[in-house]
């Protein structure tokens, strides 16, 4: 078996993704002495952290392996699962290797978690990263730039390198290289989904949240080489679906596998969205901070967490359906996820108007039973194969 | 007059009658707007820009208020059912679903008259993520422009110059031009300043009323009664002469109760002896509001301070609208609303209330569909307990969805909580002896 065997890479990625000790992060710290900074979904400007010699570490909850012992004591009955498992990781020592946590402005639950973090971990950096909801450069742009400059100063006070423009430019280049490969692997999945099973792609992207970007880039290259060379991966008669709503709390891996086994090729999704949050490369010329800010304002995904003004809800999803040649949409949101569930009826309208079949269900990151979802997804896939275009 | 009638008569103190008349008149004015040609703006209570709207002669419509009014009139169950039938999840904010159901049912307001469609959706995105989604939904239903005001959260517990500038710039460059366009009037800063000066005057009197709860017995219930007191200033009247008059009269009324050594008036009349002094965090349940209040009153429990009465503005920390800095003061007002404060600041405020109002403890009403308030409240409870040494209680209900108000369960929990306070007192007394 060669080193580029995609299954081996996926297995290694799954080990990294399921490693609650964050061994790779601990090793990186031992090796470099740098700060490791955790962040919650969806997006933080990792280029800035990288330029200051920090390791960005994506924390997407505890998944289905983590036993919640203390996290439940922090939250009421009716709430999504990710804050419980994240606080559990904090309290059980898993996140001791992190020097700080960033909480991007995506919803009230993640927002309030930033306050809990401040109270429970007062010695660590705990920062709510407010992002603009108005996108004119002279309004939201100036505000966001100031937020980033404050973040950079805070990191420096805690021992990170000062933010230098040329270092930021170089980090933008490094992440552009990574983004290009991410796009390549997703494009390959659109073209030949049998080559890139979504369960593999998912664990690869999860590993990319904790590995240094340079290692992740190398891994993506290996993976692409491996799957292109793998002649055993043959097409099957599956329905092409777009999975949406899972941009924060992640579904258990078993759910993704269940959908594939139920006859669905996931050809586009919202999972581990940070890797694709920016739609294109960030220009490497000009003032790098301006470029970073501008990319957020003008070149970000149309997430339910962002205010959409004139364009109308759902148009972007319909375009993604067309772009990925999906035959149907599965709305797959975590229970009690305000952004996804409040968005859904508006987007469903647009999807229905476009004549696209859809179905919907909810999950929690620690779900262990998939029989009902398997039946629902199987029926949906069958209906697409049998009735689409009739 | 039988006992029931006597009880009803006892509730109708003059300030409450005045407040109800003011709000009813506003709803009638809204209903007549299509004939009178007055323009209206839908907007939210937290971070409302009432003085600015008034300076353009725009009438505010507050969807949360409509929702809670619907709940108090027993209509929210059907409205929510309609919204869920249309595809809205059972997991999300019931204010939103109640509002959508009401719209679907003809947009009939609490006075039985149809509310006008919005001429402007003023999306003051303050302290609640759902607000943004709510108006994205409404925008799809109405042919009205949206003016978005993004109010940054006090993540680090402070208002920075950058945050203030961001809000002021939005007001100047986006919100005011949108209001000018809809109203056909030019921005009149002198008029805005006059409104703001009146706001500050009313705010002085409101704070005096809320702080009257330091007395023993407290002359007010600062939660159940408090929602009536905040009604005018949190809705359409901040900045108006009517608000100034109302709060002057209310303050005089409460000061008279202090002088007479009286406790609060409850829906069932004068309250009996004050046994427990409680601080409450979280909004009330509106579908069973009187029943909920009665559970406290019957036990002799008075709420001496609450966070909910700060949701449309925190004034008891010294903030007042400042007419000399009109846009800056509006920005600071928005950023200072309770749910825009971070959790450590909220804990500080609750600790201060427990201590300054000499309360027996903190009770949290955790609202099922309001993550802005509820996410993290259990941790807040423990923090307040640890810092004050006073026992905390926790109950769960919802804003306007009657399916999530379990009267027997809540009553049991409240009784257990009051027993816990008794035990704590007994323990303190025993140690003292």
How would you explain this protein's 3D organization?
The complex is a heterodimer of chains A (about 400) and B (about 425). Chain A has about 400 residues and is of the alpha/beta class. Chain A has 2 domains: about 35-165, 3-Layer(aba) Sandwich (Rossmann fold); about 235-390, Rossmann fold (3-Layer(aba) Sandwich). Chain A contains 14 helices and 8 strands. Chain A has helices spanning about 5-15, 25-30, 45-50, 80-90, 110-120, 135-155, 165-190, 200-210, 215-230, 255-260, 290-300, 315-325, 340-355, 370-385, and strands spanning about 35-40, 55-60, 100-105, 125-130, 240-245, 265-270, 330-335, 360-365. In chain A, helix 6 packs across helix 11, helix 7 packs parallel to helix 9 (about 215-230) and helix 10 (about 255-260) packs parallel to helix 14. By secondary structure, chain B is α/β, with parallel strands linked by helices. Chain B has 2 domains: about 15-185, Rossmann fold; about 265-430, Rossmann fold, CATH 3.40.50. Chain B has helices at about 5-10, 15-35, 50-55, 65-70, 75-85, 95-105, 130-140, 160-185, 190-210, 225-235, 240-260, 290-295, 325-335, 345-355, 370-375, 375-390, 405-430, and strands at about 40, 60, 120-125, 145-150, 265, 270, 275-280, 300-305, 360-365, 390-395. In chain B, the strands form 3 sheets. A 4-stranded parallel β-sheet of chain B has the order 2-1-3-4, with helices on both faces. In chain B, strands 8-7-9-10 form a 4-stranded parallel β-sheet, sandwiched between helices. In chain B, strands 5-6 form a two-stranded antiparallel ribbon. In chain B, helix 2 runs parallel beside helix 10 (about 225-235). The longest helix of chain B has 26 residues, at about 405-430. Chains A and B meet through helix 5, strand 4, helix 6 and helix 13 of A and helix 7, strand 4, helix 8, helix 14 and helix 15 of B.
């Amino acid at each position: 078996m060669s080193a580029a065997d995609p299954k081996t890479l996926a297995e290694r990625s799954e080990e990294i993704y399921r490693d609650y000790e964050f061994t790779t992060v601990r090793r990186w710290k031992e090796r470099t002495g740098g700060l490791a900074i955790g962040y919650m979904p969806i997006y933080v400007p990792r280029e800035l952290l990288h330029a200051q010699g920090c390791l960005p570490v994506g924390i997407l909850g505890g998944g289905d392996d983590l036993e919640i012992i203390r996290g439940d004591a922090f939250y009421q009955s009716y709430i999504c699962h990710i804050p419980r498992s994240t606080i559990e990781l904090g309290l059980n020592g898993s996140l001791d290797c992190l020097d700080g946590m960033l909480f991007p402005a995506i919803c009230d639950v993640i927002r309030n978690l930033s306050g809990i973090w401040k109270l429970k971990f007062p010695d660590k950096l705990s920062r709510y990263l407010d992002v603009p909801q108005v996108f004119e450069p002279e309004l939201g742009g100036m505000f966001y730039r100031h937020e980033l400059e404050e973040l950079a100063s805070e990191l420096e006070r805690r021992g990170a390198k000062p933010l230098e423009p040329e270092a930021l430019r170089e980090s933008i280049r490094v992440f552009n290289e990574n983004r290009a490969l991410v796009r390549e692997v997703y494009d390959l999945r659109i073209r030949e989904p049998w080559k890139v099973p979504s369960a593999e792609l998912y664990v690869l992207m999860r590993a990319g949240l904790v590995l240094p970007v340079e290692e992740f880039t190398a891994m993506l290259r290996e993976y692409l080489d491996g799957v292109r060379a793998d002649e055993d991966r043959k097409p099957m008669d599956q329905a092409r679906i777009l999975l949406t709503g899972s941009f924060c709390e992640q579904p258990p891996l078993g759910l993704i596998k269940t959908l594939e086994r139920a006859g669905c090729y996931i050809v586009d999704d919202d999972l581990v969205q940070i890797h694709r949050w920016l739609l294109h490369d960030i220009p490497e010329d000009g003032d790098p901070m301006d470029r970073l800010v501008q990319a957020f304002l003008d070149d970000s995904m149309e997430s339910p967490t962002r205010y959409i003004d004139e364009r109308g809800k759902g148009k972007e999803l319909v375009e993604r359906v067309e772009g990925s040649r999906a035959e149907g949409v599965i709305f797959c949101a975590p229970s009690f996820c305000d952004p996804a569930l409040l968005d859904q009826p508006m987007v469903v309208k647009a999807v229905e108007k476009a004549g696209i079949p859809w179905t919907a269900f909810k999950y929690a990151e620690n779900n262990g039973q998939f029989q009902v979802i398997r039946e629902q997804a199987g029926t949906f896939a069958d209906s697409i194969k049998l009735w689409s275009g009739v | 007059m039988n006992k029931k009638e006597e009880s009803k008569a006892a509730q109708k103190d003059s300030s409450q009658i005045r407040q109800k008349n003011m709000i009813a008149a506003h709803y009638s004015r809204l209903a007549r707007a299509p004939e009178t040609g007055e323009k209206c703006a839908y907007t939210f209570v937290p971070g409302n820009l009432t003085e600015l709207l008034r300076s353009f002669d725009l009438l505010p419509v507050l969807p949360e208020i409509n929702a809670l009014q619907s709940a108090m009139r027993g209509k929210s169950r059907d409205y929510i059912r309609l919204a869920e039938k249309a595809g809205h999840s059972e997991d999300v904010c019931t204010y939103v679903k109640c509002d959508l159901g009401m719209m679907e049912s003809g947009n009939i307001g609490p006075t039985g008259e149809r509310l006008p469609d919005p001429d402007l959706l003023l999306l003051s995105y303050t302290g609640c993520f759902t607000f943004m989604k709510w108006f994205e939904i409404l925008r799809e239903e109405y042919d009205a422009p949206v003016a978005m005001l993004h109010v940054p959260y006090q993540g680090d517990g402070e208002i920075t110059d950058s945050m203030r500038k961001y809000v002021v710039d939005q007001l100047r460059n986006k919100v005011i031009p949108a209001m000018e366009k809809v109203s056909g009037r030019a921005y009149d800063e002198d008029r805005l300043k006059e409104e703001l000066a009146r706001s500050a005057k009313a705010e002085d009197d409101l704070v005096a009323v809320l702080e009257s709860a330091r007395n023993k017995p407290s002359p007010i219930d600062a939660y159940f009664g408090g929602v009536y007191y905040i009604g005018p200033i949190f809705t359409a009247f901040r900045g108006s002469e009517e608000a100034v008059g109302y709060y002057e009269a209310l303050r005089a009324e409460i000061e008279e109760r202090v002088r007479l050594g009286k406790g609060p008036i409850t829906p069932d009349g004068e309250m009996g002896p004050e046994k427990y002094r409680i601080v409450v965090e979280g909004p009330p349940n509106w579908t069973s509001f009187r029943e909920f209040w009665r559970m406290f009153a019957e036990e002799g429990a008075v709420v001496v301070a609450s966070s909910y009465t700060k949701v449309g503005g925190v004034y008891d920390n010294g903030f007042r609208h400042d007419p000399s800095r009109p846009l800056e003061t509006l920005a600071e007002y928005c950023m200072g609303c309770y749910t825009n404060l971070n959790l450590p600041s909220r804990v500080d405020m609750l600790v201060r209330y427990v201590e300054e109002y000499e309360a027996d403890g903190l009770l949290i009403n955790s609202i099922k569909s309001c993550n802005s308030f509820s996410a993290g409240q259990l941790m807040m409870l423990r923090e307040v307990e640890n810092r004050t040494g006073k026992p905390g209680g926790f109950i769960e209900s919802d804003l306007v969805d009657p399916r999530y108000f379990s009267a027997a369960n809540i009553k049991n929990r409240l009784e257990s909580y009051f027993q816990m306070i008794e035990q704590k007192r007994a323990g303190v007394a025993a140690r003292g002896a």
